[in-house]
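Consider the tokenized backbone below.
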């Protein structure tokens, strides 16, 4: 069950979390301990990417065990994955780019969705499709916060918020979060794939806590 309404409330909900941990899980047994580690460190929102065969099963396990975690599914590239994300209990979905068919299907099934944007034309298209939280990706290599400010400026009066992801880390976190354009940031540095594979939950708790200290 979604904790918030589609699209319009997604940015507001993630604004309360401020950090979305971006994750790649290779082993189903790691799913719940990983989510527990993030929660212990103070992070209550995650984007579980569809880059491994067990991703959806891992999402369902997290949803069942830890309903307090804001569970998002990332790398959604087609309508079938939208349906699978909903079935796994996702509260929101995101994609690296914008695909009208995917966005419209997500809206039809009630999945709050943040498509990826990097240019003014993509922002324009996403807003025309009714999206109000847009994933700015890849954030740093596309030009960073200065680029986001430039492409967002013509549409600022429409109330869009952004979820930047790509190249964000502890040292530039505060700069991104200081912008009123940014609802939350996506971070893969908090629980990188190698730490998850090593089941180094203590380091993931530490990374999450350090990030939340910067937020506060």
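A designed sequence for it:
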């Amino acid at each position: 069950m979604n904790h918030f309404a589609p699209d319009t409330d997604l940015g507001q909900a993630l604004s309360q979390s401020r950090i979305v941990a971006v994750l790649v899980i290779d082993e189903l047994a790691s799913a719940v301990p990983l989510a527990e580690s993030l929660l212990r460190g103070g992070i209550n929102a995650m984007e579980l990417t569809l880059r491994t065969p067990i991703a959806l099963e891992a999402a369902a396990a997290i949803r069942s065990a830890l309903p307090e975690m804001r569970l998002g599914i990332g790398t959604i590239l087609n309508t079938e994955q939208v349906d699978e994300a909903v079935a796994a209990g996702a509260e929101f979905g995101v994609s690296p780019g914008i695909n009208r068919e995917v966005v419209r299907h997500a809206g039809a099934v009630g999945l709050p969705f943040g498509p990826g944007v990097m240019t003014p034309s993509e922002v324009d298209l996403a807003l025309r499709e009714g999206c109000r939280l847009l994933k700015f990706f890849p954030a740093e290599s596309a030009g960073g916060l200065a680029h986001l400010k430039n492409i967002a400026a013509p549409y600022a009066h429409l109330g869009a918020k952004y979820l930047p992801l790509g190249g964000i880390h502890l040292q530039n976190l505060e700069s991104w979060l200081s912008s009123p354009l940014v609802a939350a940031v996506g971070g893969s540095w908090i629980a990188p794939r190698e730490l998850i594979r090593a089941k180094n939950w203590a380091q993931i708790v530490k990374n999450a806590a350090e990030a939340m200290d910067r937020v506060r």
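The CA atoms of residues 138 and 166 lie 5 Å apart.
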